[in-house]
Design a protein that fits this description.
With 256 residues, the protein is α/β, with parallel strands linked by helices. Helices cover 40% and strands 14% of the residues. Helix 8 links the parallel strand 6 and strand 7. The site of 3-methyl-2-oxobutanoic acid has 11 residues, from strand 6. 3-methyl-2-oxobutanoic acid (KIV) binds next to strand 6.
């Protein structure tokens, strides 16, 4: 069974584990634990301090993805298509083909519903596996508030999820979606939902790796910090600095 079919088969059976990676060494650790490794365009804010993911370019995504590819043997590798690279089917196909040929990733992810239906359909018809992304869409959102409070929002997210399934996506990320809506959407479609700030009712979960290890200074409700790597790096660098200043490093052990 190919990787995509295996992933879909997990729905209603076992939870799907996903994380983001932007480089080889991290990807090689995640590969042992994750079903999906996503090269997310969140790298714009996490690594480059951009105000918005709109500044992320196709070339940046390709270079980071080439690095991630070297670290992955088992997991499904998905790459985000950045802002303004899939405004119509022709543009989407040209850029998705470029991403896949240069990075050898398994699939691409696009943000949005009805507006990008034709682009997604074109990619799928051309045998390019596509992951959807609904709820809070960082490439275009203005408020960065969770979705599903308003009836209209709930209706359009549900409608879009069904539409994306019809267009042929193999899975949908639900970002910052109210619990009962995430639960309902997950029940209403036959492909897995992957939640980020979208409750435990999704078929799987994703987090930004730098958030999970406590390296990225973010304080969002949906982020659980499983480590405090910032503190550990600080301690290591502080010790190194002290030892160099006191001429204790390198000692004989570290010299030729
Ligand atoms: O860009 C990203 O990292 C993402 C995940 C947070 C889902 O889209």
């Amino acid at each position: 069974m190919d990787k995509i079919k295996k992933l879909i088969a997990k729905k209603n059976k076992s939870k799907i584990v996903s994380l983001t990676a932007y480089s080889k060494n991290i990807a090689s650790v995640l590969d042992n634990y994750c079903d999906i490794v996503l090269v997310g365009d969140s790298l714009g804010s996490v690594l480059y301090n951009y105000k918005s993911t709109q500044q992320v370019t196709l070339d940046m995504m390709i270079e980071h993805s080439k690095s991630v590819r070297m670290g992955i043997k088992k997991a499904l590798m998905v790459v985000d298509m950045p802002y303004n690279t899939y405004r119509n089917p022709k543009e989407a196909l040209k850029n998705a083909k470029k991403i896949i040929s240069k990075t050898k990733c398994d699939a691409v992810k696009l943000e949005g519903g009805k507006k990008i239906y034709n682009s997604i359909q074109t990619l799928v018809k051309n045998k390019i596996p596509v992951m959807g992304h609904l709820g809070l869409l960082p490439q275009s959102d203005k408020t960065f508030k969770f979705k599903g409070k308003k009836k209209s929002e709930r209706e359009s997210i549900l409608k879009d999820a069904k539409l994306l399934e019809r267009a042929g996506v193999f899975s949908i990320v639900l970002e910052c979606v109210e619990t009962s809506l995430a639960k309902y959407v997950t029940k209403q479609i036959n492909i897995p939902t992957i939640g980020i700030g979208a409750s435990n009712y999704c078929d799987g979960q994703i987090l930004v790796f730098d958030d999970l290890i406590g390296l990225n200074p973010i304080n969002a409700r949906f982020v659980k910090k499983y480590a405090n790597i910032h503190k550990q790096i600080k301690n290591a660098v502080s010790n190194y600095s002290k030892e160099v200043r006191k001429a204790q490093f390198p000692s004989k052990k570290y010299s030729y």
